[in-house]
Amino acid sequence: MDKIIASTQENEWTGSIALDDADELYLREYALKHGHIGSSDHILGFKVTNLTVCLYYGKDTYLNLTQKGKEPKMSEFDISITEFFELFKRVSFAVSRSNIGNGLA
């Protein structure tokens, strides 16, 4: 699995994001409840593009999977913007114009 990096067609704004799980229904519980992962699976990462979530998951840690020569499983599903943000208690975006480089974000 390649490094998960956010991108758009033009990438005019780039940066990073930090998220805290919500208190009750968080991403893993949502994915489990809706049948996107199994009960013994752990989410290793995810990418959101136009509110389609792409989960990378497995029954082991990413390091153990790669040492065994295995790739994480993947599941995609659509989600509303309201549902997505309800999965997190706090959200922080930091972005800057891409032509600034790593100057601000």
Q: What's the layout of helices and strands?
A:
Layout (H helix, E strand, L loop, with lengths): L12 E9 L5 H7 L8 E8 L2 E7 L3 H6 L5 E6 L2 H6 L1 E10 L8
Antiparallel strand pairs: 1-5, 2-3, 3-4
Description:
By secondary structure, the chain is an alpha+beta fold. The chain contains three helices and five strands. The protein has helices at residues 27-33, 62-67, 81-86; strands spanning 13-21, 42-49, 52-58, 73-78, 88-97. Strand 2 and strand 3 (52-58) form a beta hairpin.
List keywords for this structure.
3 helices, two-stranded antiparallel sheet, alpha+beta, 105 residues, 18% helix
Short summary:
By secondary structure, the protein is of the alpha+beta class. It is built from three helices and five strands. The longest helix is centred in the first third of the chain and has 7 residues.
State the helix count. 3
Rg is 15 Å
Q: Level of helix content?
A: 10-25%
Uncertain regions: pLDDT < 50 for 5+ in a row?
Answer: none
Report the major sheet: 3 strands, antiparallel
Biggest sheet, spatial arrangement of strands: 2-3-4
Q: Could you give the distance between the termini?
A: 25 Å
What string gives the helices and strands in order?
A: EHEEHEHE
Mass-distribution shape: globular
Structural class: alpha+beta
Please report which band the strand proportion falls in: under 5%, 5-15%, 15-25%, 25-35%, 35-45% or over 45%: 35-45%
**Count of strand segments:** 5
The averaged pLDDT comes out at 86
What oligomeric assembly is this protein in?
single chain
